[in-house]
Amino acid sequence: MKKTGIFNSEISSIVASMGHTDKIAVVDMGFPISNNVKKIDLVVDKGIPSLEEVVKSILKELSIEKIIIAKESSEEFISMMKKINKNIEIVSHEELKKIANNSKAVVRTGEVKPYFNAIFVSGVIF
């Protein structure tokens, strides 16, 4: 059995396979996910797990170059993302949906706050 890191086998596999500039989206309960992208649905109930909890786990293993969020995002969410990485790209929610659905995977959380959606662009460790 694995001792540390991400225990969800699908997320662990995606993170391990990511190269520089590959993307993984972590989204709220209501985010529309295309049938053409790998969907990892973690929702147990409203708010469970939160987007913040999932992101914290992923960031233990993934180097981030930048984060893409929607301009409709709240100040609370923007502030949360800036604590992770100062390099933030802001796009329309429509554009965010397109980018997310062209990512390696979209991870659906139980998050219920509107526009709590982020795309993490993989960096390099050297």
From TrEMBL:
| Root EC class | isomerase
Arranged from A to Z, the UniProt key words for this protein are: Carbohydrate metabolism, Cytoplasm, Isomerase
Give the active-site positions.
H20
Instruction: List the GO cellular component terms.
Output: cytosol
Please cite one Gene Ontology biological process associated with this protein: D-ribose catabolic process
Which molecular function term from Gene Ontology is one that the record holds?
monosaccharide binding
Question: Which reaction does this enzyme catalyse, per its entry?
Answer: beta-D-ribopyranose = beta-D-ribofuranose
Question: In what pathway does it function?
Answer: Carbohydrate metabolism; D-ribose degradation; D-ribose 5-phosphate from beta-D-ribopyranose: step 1/2
Q: Where in the cell is it found?
A: Cytoplasm
One Pfam match? RbsD_FucU
Q: What is its EC number?
A: 5.4.99.62
What InterPro entries does UniProt report for this protein, alphabetically? D-ribose_pyranase, RbsD-like_sf, RbsD_FucU
Residues at which substrate binds: D28, H93
Q: Does this UniProt record's set of keywords contain Disulfide bond? A: no
Described purpose of this protein according to its UniProt entry: Catalyzes the interconversion of beta-pyran and beta-furan forms of D-ribose.
Q: Per its UniProt record, what HAMAP family does this chain match?
A: D_rib_pyranase
Family that this chain belongs to: Belongs to the RbsD / FucU family. RbsD subfamily.
- NCBIfam families, per database record: PRK11797.1
Subunit info?
A: Homodecamer.
Please report the name of this protein according to its UniProt entry. Answer: D-ribose pyranase
The species this protein was found in: Marinitoga hydrogenitolerans (strain DSM 16785 / JCM 12826 / AT1271)
Taxonomic classification: Bacteria, Thermotogati, Thermotogota, Thermotogae, Petrotogales
